[in-house]
Amino acid sequence: MPDVEFVNLLIVAAIALTAPLLLGLAPALRVPAVVLEIVAGIVVGPSGLGWVEIDLPVQIVALLGLAFLLFLAGLEIDVHRLSGQALLGYVVTLAVGLAAGFAFQAAGWVQSPLLLAVTLSATSLGLIVPVLKDAGRVDGDAGQVAIAGASVADFAAIILLSLAFSMSGGGLGGRVGLLGLFAGLVVLTGLVIVFAGRSRRLADALFRLQDTTAEIRVRAAVVLLVAFVALAEELGLESILGAFLAGVVVGVIDRDTTSHPRFRIKLEAVGYGFLIPVFFVTSGLRLDLGGLLADAGALARVPLFLVALLLARGLPAFLHVRSLPRRDVFAVALLQATSLPFIVTATQIGVAVGLMSPVTAAALTCAGLLSVLLFPAGAVGLLSTRDPDQTNEGAREVTNLPTVGD
């Protein structure tokens, strides 16, 4: 057996267990587990106590966790929500992000304004959907606008990050051609799966094996995930794009879940039960908190990056000011500005390609942590001020009333 130690992975797995358990024991502490996981990684990592280092087992599991995180994010995308208005909102996001990027570049904080704009351009769809569900507004106008905007933002941000900042190098024109080839192969694979699924014999076999130890649907999803990741890497694209599109394909094909209602729950169990928490704890281990705290000027980047994130992702919500009550618009703005997983991913790629310093990456990650802590809570407060069962006409009347802050 190879001479590999699992002590570091044991500590990381123990943190992944403890973080949600503590939150379960203290339900009044409304903090996402991902925040505790990253903070705990900082505490036990090189920037803190120095108890854990990123060795080979931790690195491999964290890489699988990133792939599964993007896979499940793609699984949540509803392609029917990719509307023109949501796309316009993303254009606004990129424009604001680029303006912030050039300003921060002039201050000597970032090297690539485009990388900063892309980093600020995504929304944590997996975080805002539970918030909307808890508020009873996921099917309301505000919820649908927020989900549509987040879907477009996540989809576009992953493609732009892979297209413009691939670690494999190569010219932009060549990567555009490779991206087109990859997209064609993804569509072709999806069509093959759809036609194969029409076979009654194959469908019966899948039904028989789906809840046995074979877990055939889960295995098929994992094969598709690994295949798309490998294909993306072979074409010189980012592996995260392959993982994300694998989730999108599964989500599009798997629309009717009546015959296998536990399939997605099983996928989430694999991801959120083991792989993804290891990725977030490892992200904390990588965070250069020491460099951030050592320089007051570097620490000042955190609130400024947070404001830039709020402006870049929040302003598109005001495109809906005529169709939503004022409070709902502000709530959507806060929800769309909630971002952490993509920031962690983008900053790690930025450091790897030499376009972002570890200190700047740490500041952006801290800004993402603050967005997860502050923005959803503020959105819930705004959404809870109005009865979700009110009609749209009544909602428009509310917009003419003074708000608490007026």
Topology summary:
Blueprint: H1 7-25, H2 33-44, H3 56-76, H4 84-106, H5 113-119, H6 125-134, H7 141-164, H8 172-197, H9 200-209, H10 216-234, H11 239-253, H12 263-286, H13 289-294, H14 296-299, H15 301-314, H16 326-336, H17 341-352, H18 358-383, H19 392-398
Walk me through the structure:
By secondary structure, the chain is mostly helical. It contains 19 helices and no strands. It has helices at residues 7-25, 33-44, 56-76, 84-106, 113-119, 125-134, 141-164, 172-197, 200-209, 216-234, 239-253, 263-286, 289-294, 296-299, 301-314, 326-336, 341-352, 358-383, 392-398. The radius of gyration is 21 Å and the shape is globular. Residues 387-406 have low confidence and may be disordered.
Output the CATH topology: Na+/H+ antiporter like fold
Spans of at least 5 consecutive residues whose pLDDT stays below 50 are 387-406
Major sheet size, sense and barrel closure: none
CATH architectural designation: Up-down Bundle
Indicate the percent of residues in helices: over 70%
- Structural class by sheet pairing and helices: mainly alpha
Number of helices: 19
Strand content: under 5%
What gap, in angstroms, lies between the N and C termini? 68 Å
CATH class categorisation: Mainly Alpha
* Cα-based radius of gyration, to the nearest Å: 21 Å
How many domains, as an integer? Answer: 1
Shape: globular
Overall pLDDT, averaged?
85
Total strands: the figure is: 0
Order of helices and strands: HHHHHHHHHHHHHHHHHHH
